Amino acid sequence: MKQSREAGSAEGRSAEGVASLERAAAEVAGEFARVGAAGILAVDASALASIGRRYGGAPHQEVLARVAAFLRDKVAAHLAAGDRICLGEMGRDEVLVLFLRDRHDAVFFRETLPGLARDVCAALIAQAGRIAYPYASDDTFLHAGVAPVLHDPTLRPDTLLRRARDLALADAALRARVEAAARRERFLSLLFSEEVRIVFEPIVKLENRQILGYEALVRGAPGSEFATPAQLFSAAADCDALFELDCLCRRTALKVAHRLPEGAKLFLNCLPSAIHDPALQDSALRDLLARHELRPSDVVFEISERESIDNFAVFREVCDHYSALGFQIALDDVGVGYSSLEAVTELAPDYLKVDMSFVRGIDEDPARQEILKALTSIAWRIDARIIAEGIETEAELKTLRELAVSYGQGYRIGRASELQREGGAPR
What we know:
Helices cover about 50% and strands about 20% of the residues. The chain is of the alpha/beta class.
């Protein structure tokens, strides 16, 4: 009998002890009948489902527990003794707050509960990426909604609370659509007004710190929802505007390319679809470079490994076309696991940029060191140079030198900046 009770208790709880809605409904049934009403605030965490598929059940439960802790913190000032933080049904990623209130408390149901939904939604938009770190990206979105419910003695408490849960999730979905539309409008406004800026991160020869060039990195307004490249490109994907944002980044980088020291190469990130940019057609491209006092040999086009493998034929066309014009090509994000070394050999770019996730802690990882040795050997055979991204420690730098990596960039090398005149103003 004891074993059966323990099994039932474990079954009713998950995400580090947070009860299920079914269990919470049973626990509050008497109080719900006494006060006559309840409110449910529901967080739709379905965006976290991929964590379980990619990393397993334990990380998934860990992040759900963080959502529950976050929610408890946000509503702490409004929690009464009988209120509950709980999870929805098994297999559904949702975290709920169950508020038990007197049915005559009109202020709570008309003002406090909707206000909590607004506050929690805003906090989730700002912090969802941090809550899910490192299992999900900064553009992870969680949404919240609310619904009140009156006690009905003709229906079971769990039936009433499930209905309220469903209504709260429907409210969350509606709020998500409204926010998505507003976010789309804000991003398109940014795109039309071209409100992005460029910072330059130095790429140096590891042997002597001689500057090879600078990678142009796009930024939105500091502290805004579009501050980082990931946020900008996520919004562009949602708006079907990746091509336009890609073009804007190049245009903006070329406008400020005069800030680069003489002889430094300009590394420009671009999608494989860049070949369709009218500004990069033969005559237009020559005119564009002339206006900014650049030669093709001054420019390196960076295309991510994943995009190149997903669009192999297009990438091959880009390589052939721009190489014939005198540009160089860098294969970006190498080492994140998308393609084989055989595919890298076939693409034969001028530079292989090893992703920061591969570089991080490489001094303590013999297996990755062996892979990098193999990659260095392949780079030598195809006359390419390796650039290690995201170097942050002296130990990583020392290991990369020992592995004969030619070039590097990252905080240990030099932070991205707008590049300054001697007097301190951007050039």
